[in-house]
Design goal:
Helix content is 49%, strand content 4%. The protein is mostly helical. Strands 1-2 form a two-stranded antiparallel sheet.
Length: 91
Amino acid sequence: MKLFKKIIKFFKGEEKDIPLDSLVDSTRPRKLGEVPEMAITLGMIQPDHYKIYNLCNGNYDLSHISEEANLDLQHVKKIVQKLYRMALIDA
């Protein structure tokens, strides 16, 4: 239930922000809680965002996450920024 409250806060604009340029390749984001896969079906999170979210375990840096997800590093940084705004990860 906490997850849905966080997502609602995001859509209402009650969000925190992290500057994109502060995300360096060695940043090791970690998720704060769990997002059920059903959130994709409900349109609450995009599939590539969910993939990145699940790789944010605090052990991997952005470069490694980018390689694992087979996505461009800049795209991964933007996704991490969005996930941070939604209070789903800590970077």
